[in-house]
Protein backbone atom coordinates (compact mmCIF):
# COMPACT_ATOMS: atom_id res chain seq x y z
CA UNK A 1 0.00 0.00 0.00
CA UNK A 2 1.46 3.36 -1.02
CA UNK A 3 1.50 6.38 1.25
CA UNK A 4 -1.03 9.04 0.41
CA UNK A 5 -0.43 12.75 0.96
CA UNK A 6 -2.92 14.35 3.33
CA UNK A 7 -3.07 18.13 3.39
CA UNK A 8 -2.77 19.72 6.83
CA UNK A 9 -3.66 23.20 5.64
CA UNK A 10 -6.92 24.72 6.79
CA UNK A 11 -9.60 24.78 4.11
CA UNK A 12 -10.28 28.11 2.44
CA UNK A 13 -13.57 28.66 4.23
CA UNK A 14 -15.20 31.97 3.45
CA UNK A 15 -18.55 32.53 5.18
CA UNK A 16 -21.41 33.91 3.14
CA UNK A 17 -21.87 37.66 3.40
CA UNK A 18 -24.94 38.85 5.30
CA UNK A 19 -27.22 40.38 2.69
CA UNK A 20 -28.84 43.78 3.14
CA UNK A 21 -32.22 42.07 3.45
CA UNK A 22 -30.90 39.77 6.19
CA UNK A 23 -29.26 42.74 7.88
CA UNK A 24 -32.57 44.60 7.88
CA UNK A 25 -34.30 41.63 9.50
CA UNK A 26 -31.52 41.41 12.08
CA UNK A 27 -31.88 45.12 12.85
CA UNK A 28 -35.63 44.78 13.41
CA UNK A 29 -35.02 41.81 15.73
CA UNK A 30 -32.37 43.70 17.71
CA UNK A 31 -34.62 46.76 18.07
CA UNK A 32 -37.27 44.45 19.52
CA UNK A 33 -34.66 42.86 21.79
CA UNK A 34 -33.60 46.26 23.13
CA UNK A 35 -37.22 46.80 24.13
CA UNK A 36 -37.22 43.48 25.99
CA UNK A 37 -33.95 44.44 27.70
CA UNK A 38 -35.56 47.76 28.65
CA UNK A 39 -32.55 49.86 27.76
CA UNK A 40 -32.47 53.53 26.87
CA UNK A 41 -31.96 54.85 23.36
CA UNK A 42 -28.61 56.22 24.53
CA UNK A 43 -27.40 52.78 25.61
CA UNK A 44 -28.80 51.13 22.50
CA UNK A 45 -26.92 53.66 20.37
CA UNK A 46 -23.66 52.78 22.16
CA UNK A 47 -24.23 49.06 21.53
CA UNK A 48 -24.71 49.78 17.83
CA UNK A 49 -21.97 52.43 17.70
CA UNK A 50 -24.37 55.05 16.35
CA UNK A 51 -25.14 58.63 17.28
CA UNK A 52 -28.37 58.69 19.34
CA UNK A 53 -30.11 60.76 16.68
CA UNK A 54 -29.28 58.18 14.01
CA UNK A 55 -30.40 55.34 16.29
CA UNK A 56 -33.75 57.05 16.87
CA UNK A 57 -34.22 57.49 13.14
CA UNK A 58 -33.45 53.80 12.58
CA UNK A 59 -35.79 52.86 15.42
CA UNK A 60 -38.54 54.90 13.74
CA UNK A 61 -38.20 52.70 10.65
CA UNK A 62 -35.71 54.69 8.58
CA UNK A 63 -32.52 52.64 8.79
CA UNK A 64 -29.41 53.65 6.95
CA UNK A 65 -26.87 51.44 5.26
CA UNK A 66 -25.73 48.49 7.35
CA UNK A 67 -21.99 48.12 6.95
CA UNK A 68 -19.93 45.07 7.86
CA UNK A 69 -19.27 46.27 11.42
CA UNK A 70 -22.98 46.88 12.04
CA UNK A 71 -23.90 43.45 10.74
CA UNK A 72 -21.28 41.92 13.06
CA UNK A 73 -22.74 43.86 16.01
CA UNK A 74 -26.26 42.69 15.17
CA UNK A 75 -25.07 39.11 14.77
CA UNK A 76 -23.35 39.13 18.15
CA UNK A 77 -26.35 40.65 19.93
CA UNK A 78 -28.68 38.04 18.43
CA UNK A 79 -26.19 35.29 19.26
CA UNK A 80 -26.18 36.43 22.90
CA UNK A 81 -29.97 36.37 22.95
CA UNK A 82 -30.13 32.94 21.34
CA UNK A 83 -27.68 31.44 23.84
CA UNK A 84 -29.59 32.95 26.76
CA UNK A 85 -32.88 31.53 25.45
CA UNK A 86 -31.25 28.08 25.42
CA UNK A 87 -29.80 28.50 28.92
CA UNK A 88 -32.95 29.88 30.57
CA UNK A 89 -36.40 28.34 30.21
CA UNK A 90 -38.11 31.45 31.57
CA UNK A 91 -37.93 34.36 29.08
CA UNK A 92 -38.03 36.87 31.95
CA UNK A 93 -34.77 35.43 33.30
CA UNK A 94 -33.30 35.69 29.80
CA UNK A 95 -34.06 39.38 29.59
CA UNK A 96 -33.10 40.15 33.20
CA UNK A 97 -29.71 38.39 32.97
CA UNK A 98 -28.27 41.09 30.75
CA UNK A 99 -28.43 43.63 33.63
CA UNK A 100 -27.58 41.25 36.49
CA UNK A 101 -24.20 41.48 38.18
CA UNK A 102 -21.92 38.64 37.15
CA UNK A 103 -18.68 37.49 38.75
CA UNK A 104 -17.42 36.42 35.31
CA UNK A 105 -17.35 40.13 34.44
CA UNK A 106 -15.77 41.28 37.70
CA UNK A 107 -19.14 41.98 39.32
CA UNK A 108 -20.37 44.05 36.39
CA UNK A 109 -23.33 43.10 34.24
CA UNK A 110 -23.09 41.89 30.66
CA UNK A 111 -24.71 45.17 29.62
CA UNK A 112 -21.99 47.10 31.45
CA UNK A 113 -19.34 45.15 29.53
CA UNK A 114 -21.06 45.70 26.19
CA UNK A 115 -21.43 49.41 26.88
CA UNK A 116 -17.67 49.67 26.43
CA UNK A 117 -18.85 50.32 22.87
CA UNK A 118 -16.36 48.14 21.02
CA UNK A 119 -17.34 45.18 18.87
CA UNK A 120 -14.93 43.13 20.98
CA UNK A 121 -17.03 43.95 24.08
CA UNK A 122 -20.06 42.34 22.43
CA UNK A 123 -17.90 39.41 21.34
CA UNK A 124 -16.63 38.90 24.90
CA UNK A 125 -20.17 38.53 26.24
CA UNK A 126 -21.13 36.27 23.35
CA UNK A 127 -18.15 33.98 23.94
CA UNK A 128 -19.11 33.75 27.60
CA UNK A 129 -22.77 32.82 27.01
CA UNK A 130 -21.82 30.45 24.19
CA UNK A 131 -19.41 28.66 26.55
CA UNK A 132 -22.11 28.46 29.23
CA UNK A 133 -24.61 27.16 26.69
CA UNK A 134 -22.12 24.57 25.49
CA UNK A 135 -22.15 22.87 28.88
CA UNK A 136 -25.78 21.89 28.32
Tags for this entry?
single chain, mainly alpha
H/E topology pattern: HHHHHHH
Low-confidence runs of at least 5 consecutive residues: none
Q: What is the end-to-end distance?
A: 44 Å
If helices are DSSP runs of H or I spanning 4 or more residues, what is the number of helices? Answer: 7
Can you offer a commentary on this structure?
The protein has one domain (20-134). The model has no long low-confidence stretch (mean pLDDT 91). It has 136 residues and is mainly alpha-helical. It has seven helices and no strands. Helix 2 packs across helix 3.
Give a quick precis of the structure.
This protein is mostly helical and 136 residues long. Helices cover 60% and strands 0% of the residues. It has helices at residues 20-37, 41-48, 52-59, 68-87, 91-97, 110-114, 119-134.
Sequence-ordered SSE layout with sheet pairings:
Elements: H1 20-37, H2 41-48, H3 52-59, H4 68-87, H5 91-97, H6 110-114, H7 119-134
